Amino acid sequence: MARGDQIYVFRPFLNLQGIYEHHGIDCGDGTVIHYRKPSETIERTSLATFSQGQKIYLKRYPVGFISDVAVQRAESRLGERKYNLLFNNCEHFANWCKTGISDSQQVRNFVPIINQMNPDQLYDCIKRSLQETDQDNASQLLSQALANIRLVWDSTQPQYKQAVQEVNAWQKVAIQALKLNREDLARAALIRKRNYEKSANEKKATLDQLAKMTETLIRNRLNVQKTS
Question: In 3-state terms, what secondary structure has residue 3?
């Protein structure tokens, strides 16, 4: 390992089964810049804090920024608190420092799994947590349910925002087409608008359902804490 290297360790994945790679940039002086958990802030920490006793691996690139540039890029984002599991995680950050491209292979591999999840499946975990009589198990189940909900929320919310933007964009296209006496283009634009409206409404319904679930979970987590 050397200054400017992208390094990673394996860590448990939230409260779910499996592990994930936690990435950072080696500063060459015994410190690492990375999106630290649980603060979800880009910080400079010791190698020991970064690795948490796990073996450190090196990510190799055929082409990338020289070491000083990679470290400078990492330093330029110290203190950032814009963590997002799917769109701005530790691997996105480290890849950006090394190559200029914000990307996460882990997310691209995991997104198909997330897309298969739905609120009805998540609700099963909530029901089991509410039926659990052992307080420790109930608390663990509640935490797992919250983690699962966050995954689906972080996947759905950007899709909802994009659909809303598309609705507004195609509405403007339709209006402009009518001004140009192009009813054919206006009709086509309105069809696209309706398709995006349908998608936005579906995504909004999912987000509303997730929000209600989260409220229920937090309320019951507080009740568990009060009785423990």
Answer: coil
Threshold 0.90, pTM exceeds: no
225 membership: H or E segment, kind and range: helix 183-227
| Measured distance CA(49)–CA(39) in Å, rounded | 13
pLDDT tens-digit series, residues 8-65: 998 875 444 446 889 999 999 999 999 998 888 999 999 999 999 989 999 988 877 8
CB atoms within 10 A of CB 26: 26
Per the structure block, which two tokens stand in for 163? 């659909």
Q: What is the DSSP string of 199-220?
A: HHHHHHHHHHHHHHHHHHHHHH
What Å distances lie between residue 167 and 163, 181, 190, CA to CA?
A: 6, 21, 9
Using alpha carbons, select from 150, 149, 132 the residue that is nearest to residue 141: 132
Amino acid at residue number 219: R
Give me the residue label for tokens 């999912």: 206
Give the CATH number of domain 6-111.
3.90.1720.10
Where exactly are the structural domains of the chain? 6-111, 117-227
